[in-house]
């Protein structure tokens, strides 16, 4: 038997026949899934994780638009507010009447939508793209966490020097601004490069762009 593809698909739909059909389809394509009959059950599943915003494997959510109780629309808003959607793209499952709503949700950040009855190949294709997007988001989260950990190793003075290096200031001007010698700036600069695992100011600036603020 071939191994499962790395990734987890959550199915949230109140219709048991839909859940079972989707689970069978995903198993046939070597994709792992978990299914839930309500938004509340799914939220409880996520809340039990150490950090739902930073999963360890790619994932996506197949979410029915209309459900008794908490609708898919309300659940989507809750997940967005909790910050759990960055690494968990949402594909809405919708009936014909809900297509305009689904289109609007895609404009607001949902990954895609699939109209019932859906094409197996088209849905699996969208799921695979969603898992790819999730994997990239997880990699980016890990990179940011690694950068934050390296920055945390810097002393206060090294952070001040690093900020000015990123701004493109020469050692002499950094020394004047911080009231230290040029030689001291050079020492701090070397330590910053070593701790941040870079070899140049350009590489440092590229590393920190969008990942750090003074």
Describe this structure in a few short sentences.
By secondary structure, the protein is an alpha/beta fold.
What does this protein structure show overall?
The protein is an alpha/beta fold and 214 residues long. It contains nine helices and five strands. It has helices spanning 16-28, 39-47, 72-82, 99-107, 120-152, 156-166, 171-178, 182-196, 201-208, and strands at 5-12, 31-36, 59-64, 90-94, 112-115. The protein has a five-stranded parallel beta sheet with strand order 2-1-3-4-5, sandwiched between helices. Helix 6 (156-166) crosses helix 8. The longest helix is centred in the middle third of the chain and has 33 residues, at 120-152. It is elongated and about 75 Å long.
Strand portion, in percent? 5-15%
Q: Enumerate the spans where pLDDT stays under 50 for 5 or more consecutive residues.
A: none
Number of helices: 9
Net shape: elongated
Distance between the termini: 52 Å
Indicate the percent of residues in helices. Answer: 40-55%
Profile the largest sheet: 5 strands, parallel
As laid out across the biggest beta sheet, the strand order is: 2-1-3-4-5
Tally the beta strands. Answer: 5
Rg on CA atoms, Å = 23 Å
**Succession of helices and strands:** EHEHEHEHEHHHHH
pLDDT averaged residue by residue:
91
Structural class: alpha/beta
């Amino acid at each position: 038997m071939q191994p499962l593809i790395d990734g987890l698909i959550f199915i949230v739909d109140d219709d048991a026949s839909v859940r079972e059909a989707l689970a069978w389809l995903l198993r046939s394509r070597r994709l792992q899934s978990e299914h839930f009959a309500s938004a509340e059950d799914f939220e409880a599943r996520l809340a039990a994780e150490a950090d739902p915003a930073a999963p360890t494997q790619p994932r996506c959510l197949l979410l029915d638009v209309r459900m008794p109780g908490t609708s898919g629309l309300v659940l989507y808003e809750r997940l967005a507010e909790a910050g759990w959607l960055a690494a968990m793209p949402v594909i809405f499952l919708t009936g014909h009447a809900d297509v305009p709503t689904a289109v609007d949700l895609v404009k607001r950040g949902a990954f895609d939508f699939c109209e019932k009855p859906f094409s197996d190949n088209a849905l699996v294709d969208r799921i695979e793209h969603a898992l790819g997007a999730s994997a990239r988001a997880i990699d980016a989260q890990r990179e940011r966490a690694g950068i934050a950990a390296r920055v945390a190793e810097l002393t206060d003075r090294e952070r001040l020097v690093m900020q000015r290096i990123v701004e493109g200031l020469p050692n002499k001007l950094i020394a004047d601004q911080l009231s230290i010698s040029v030689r001291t700036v050079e020492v701090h600069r070397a330590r910053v490069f070593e701790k941040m695992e870079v070899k140049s100011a350009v590489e440092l600036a590229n590393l920190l762009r969008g990942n750090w603020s003074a």
